[in-house]
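pls ignore typos typing on phone
cytidine-5'-monophosphate + seq
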Amino acid sequence: MPAGVHARAPGKLNVYLEVGERQDDGYHDLHTIFQAVSLYQDVWAQDDPSFSVTVEGSVDTSTVPTDARNLAIAAAKLVAERIGHSGGARLHVRKQVPVAGGMGGGSADAAAALVACNALWDARLGAQELHALAAQLGADVPFALLGGTALGTGRGDQLSPIPAKGRFEWVLLPMQGGLSTPAVYAKLDDMRESGADYRPDPAAREGVLSALLAGDASALAEQMRNDLQAVAVALMPKLAGARAHDRHARASLVSGSGPTIAFLVADAAEAEALISGLSDDGYPGALHVHGAVAGARVLNEK
Ligand code: C5P
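k done
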């Protein structure tokens, strides 16, 4: 076990992702419903004169930057700046969430680093202050702090918790080669300019909300929506072949900007059968997870 304060934050799915108009700042107005799932990023933080990070994981981490572009480093720097701490931090990140997979892995690194450094430096920043720092780091970072199930509006960073009932069983299929979130949004803008209209759907939002509040997976399966899905499939056509396996699940949905595919399943037996069917068809590496799980938290105190 690496040394230092140990924090953990979950990856997420968007069970609903309605992408509205592009704003002047380049971000799109969202109505999204996040659910945190049982794939985690672990971060250890130790005092050090400067800021550095090492990265390992059960997923391919070869494309993760370890310089100032790394979101865990950015998070640690932000906490130091906020409290006037003159030292740095040596961070270690262990990833389970696929990199560039549409599951908020980098955001979870940042959220875990925020709470780790808050404890490391005894900064005592409260939930609101941490949320404000998180929103500066990226649109999905506040949700990685909060966890559970939540509605996100604005950039996706204005959150209202949803007391979802029960437990939802998912099979995640990570795909080789990630998709860049800005590229997926830019392609959506292109597709919309050539006629694919945005259609707000408040009734569908309500439907998803009711399904979650009731813990009704089959109702959720019928109502899930992701406006980035068609874009992700256009950029990575092999997603369509994998999604066809949803005849062995309740439903499937590309997660966030993709390319990870989330299959909503009934139980562990259905998950297991789906995972082996996917593997036999040339889609290895699927994982059975569940939601909702807690947001970023410290697992050991100093
Ligand atoms: O905030 P974050 O760095 O995670 O966002 C990555 C990119 O995703 C943004 O630069 C933007 O291109 C796109 N995005 C968006 N609208 C959102 C969230 C993200 O266009 N609500």
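The pocket of cytidine-5'-monophosphate is lined by residues 26-28, 30, 138-140, 155-156, 181-182, 185 (CB under 6 Å). The CA atoms of residues 233 and 291 lie 25 Å apart. more later
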